[in-house]
Amino acid sequence: MIRKTRPVSWIKSALKEFEAFPEGAKSICLVALTIAAEGSRIPEKIDAGDQNGATRYLFNQGTFEESEGDAAMKNEPLDIVRGSGNVFRDLGHKNGDAQQLKSILAAEIIKTLDRETLTLRAAHERTGVAAADFSRIRNAELGRFTVDRLIMILNRFGSRVDIKIRIRKNAA
Questions:
Q1: Quick check: helix, strand or coil at residue 131?
Q2: Rounded to whole angstroms, what are the CA distances from 78 to 49, 85, 130?
Q3: Contact indicator for 29, 18 with CB cutoff of 8 Å
Q4: Which of 34, 71, 82, 140 has a CA 20 to 30 Å removed from the CA of 5?
Q5: Which of 61, 93, 79, 111 lies closest to 13, judged by CA?
Q6: Beta strands in the chain (DSSP E)
Q7: What is the CA radius of gyration of the chain?
């Protein structure tokens, strides 16, 4: 079975605003978008603040809010930008394919937690993985995780991970 993540479409003006977010905030939000596109539940609000804490960027039920100042585009026409299914690649991230894979694996971990109604502590007891790591995965904070570590977590839940790789040249 070939998996195709649902593409994320952007309102062009909102995309422009999003691109101005600090890298750390963008990364967390993109992971959350990918997890949601995979059909997994994410927390209603994810706080993706910048490094110095001056501005908070909330991912709130699929929309972004800048807590300091109104970033809404009220008078601009809605110009839609269609996504490819990989938000990282769409936004030009250097390792977009690897970030997409990590996000898909995180989505599968979240699906397992939800399907089996496991608390973070119960997931820790079952897998030996720290409860704080499951909290990070739920909150789309994947910076500390490698692909092989996420696969190991799925394996400890009794899942087998098969990955099909297709390599294509980029359009120049």
A1: helix
A2: 27, 21, 44
A3: yes
A4: 71
A5: 79
A6: 10-11, 45-47, 57-60, 63-66, 80-81
A7: 17
Please tell me the total number of residues recorded for the chain in this structure: 172
User: What is d(CA 57, CA 66) in angstroms, rounded to the nearest whole number?
Assistant: 5
Tokens of 104: 């898909």
Residue 113: pLDDT band by 50, 70, 90 thresholds?
very high
Amino acid at position 107, single letter: A
Percent of the chain whose predicted confidence (pLDDT) is above 70: 73
Helix (H, G, I), strand (E, B) or coil at 63: strand
Whole-prediction pTM: 0.71
Q: What is the pLDDT of residues 17-47, one digit of tens each?
A: 777 777 777 777 778 777 777 777 666 555 5
Indicate if the alpha-carbon torsion angle 85, 88, 91, 93 is positive or negative: negative
